[in-house]
Design a protein that fits this description.
It is a single chain. This protein has helices at 16-23, 38-41, 71-80, and strands at 27-34, 53-59, 64-68, 84-88. With 89 residues, it is an alpha+beta fold. The protein has a domain at 30-88. Strands 3-2-1-4 form a four-stranded mixed β-sheet, covered by helices on one side. The longest helix is centred in the C-terminal third of the chain and has 10 residues, at 71-80. The chain is globular and about 30 Å long. The N and C termini lie far apart (44 Å).
């Protein structure tokens, strides 16, 4: 008697550390954020006017690389730095 299971594995959240290990130095991620929240994860960024949507490019280890006003700009910068950018929702 054999049993067959047709189950799709559940998505398991990946920690930032696990993502960095998996990605090495070639992957980066883009996250949309509010301008007033940028100082929390990127203290060296200039003060931005509140109420704006911005896009932040992070290295796989979570280090912020760039804050910009468009997803296209964040991805272009990643490409210039020879990084593969993925979006985080």
């Amino acid at each position: 008697m054999s049993a067959s299971f047709n189950r799709t594995p559940a998505a398991i959240p990946m920690s930032q550390r696990d993502f960095a290990i998996l990605a090495g130095s070639r992957l980066a991620y883009v996250r949309q954020a509010r301008s007033e929240d940028v100082a929390h994860f990127c203290p060296e960024a200039p003060v931005l006017a509140p109420g704006q949507e911005v896009f932040v490019l992070f290295a796989a280890d979570g280090t912020p690389i760039l804050v910009t006003d468009s997803l296209e700009s964040a991805k272009a910068n990643a490409e210039h730095e020879q990084l593969e950018a993925v979006s985080i929702h």
